[in-house]
Amino acid sequence: MVAQESGVSPKHILGVLYGFSSGGVDLLKTQAHANTRTGVAFEAACTFLKDRESELEGYEPVASHGGFVALRRRPSPAAVVLPGLSPPPSDLVVCNPVTGQHVSLPRPSIWDESFVLLAHGTGFTLQIVNLELADAGMLQVQTFSSAKGKWDGVVATYANLPLGAPSRFVRPSPLVLDGVAYWLCKSESKSLGYHVLALPLDGQRQPAPIKFPDKVPKTRGRGDNFNTEDILLASTTVNGTRRLTLAAVANVTISLWTLDDDQAEKPARWTRHKCFDLWNITLEREGPLPVREKGDRVALECFSESGESGSLLFHHRMLYRIDLQSDKQTEKVSVAGIYCKRSSSNMCEYHTDDAAALLKT
Question: Per its UniProt record, what PANTHER family does this chain match (predicted)?
């Protein structure tokens, strides 16, 4: 396991990274940059990605932290995977688009299902985590350190998951909060189903599942299933404390559920914290959402740590931002930008912890 994260509060959010519909990786500015250094860092990152467009063709961002971003490209053509076997590992790159650092990683020993990326000054560690052994109540972890320049051995750890029931990650990157990585997962076990998997990064505690709130609504009549874009992990400030938060979409309403007790070994207690009715917000403000039409969808893209309590980025023909702190409904939603993302691509926020220091070179 890697060392526990120190709890970085990003000061310089440059935008969001995503796999462009054709080509490489794109960086979209989603808010005004607070100062000149942040703007210069943004331009440096865009130049890096543009200059390497052909080299990064087919890659998507899967994790970002402290200026570093992990990029993945699945094998092409897609490999035929026989029942009971895992897909082959992907091509992996870790880079810092602002400083120009770029490392092509050797392929890991296990399937790269999910990732935890942590920055350490000018270095980084990348953990690959997968649920290949979930039906045995286990998960697998393999760590790459830039200091060592190689992968460590694969570690299998007991995850307290139901035996004999396969599980999968809903999204490839977790939310890291107070030294714990949290994933949205689905287990084929009827006793667990959708849940949050918590993995302490200090290596001193075992991972464990946290059950979903019982009253989270399913959307668009799919029974017991969510689409990937229907649910997203975030964090919000409640009474001065950052809390793990589950965002869920039902039609054009986004509900937030906060975890009251983060001790996974105890029964999880969730509280419905806030609810955003995008239709009513549109009527009150006469925008900024476009006129609603039959078949319109709201898709949750990623969580941003901007603002006092963070914000959600969601797609509704364009990319929009919801401020999770504002008490005024009409000030909650703003246009973040226009983008053209591959349907299979992940999206993640990109920030630098100290734009001034990164741009000294």
Answer: OS03G0775900 PROTEIN, OS08G0203800 PROTEIN-RELATED
What residue type is 141 in one-letter code?
Answer: V
CA dihedral in degrees (356, 181, 263, 131; nearest 10)? Answer: 180
- Please tell me the pTM assigned to this model: 0.86
User: Is there a single domain that holds both residue 352 and residue 311?
Assistant: no
Highest-confidence segment of 136-140, 351-355, 356-360: 136-140
Q: What is the pLDDT of residues 32-45, one digit of tens each?
A: 776 788 888 999 99
Q: Is residue 167 part of a domain?
A: no
Nearest to 2 by CA among 125, 141, 180: 125
Q: Quick one: 358 and 296 in the same domain?
A: no
Q: What is the length of the chain?
A: 361
| Cβ contact 188:165 at 8 Å | yes
Strands 68-73 and 123-130: what pairing?
unpaired
Residue 190 lies inside a defined structural domain of this protein = no
Q: Are residues 140 and 261 in the same domain?
A: no
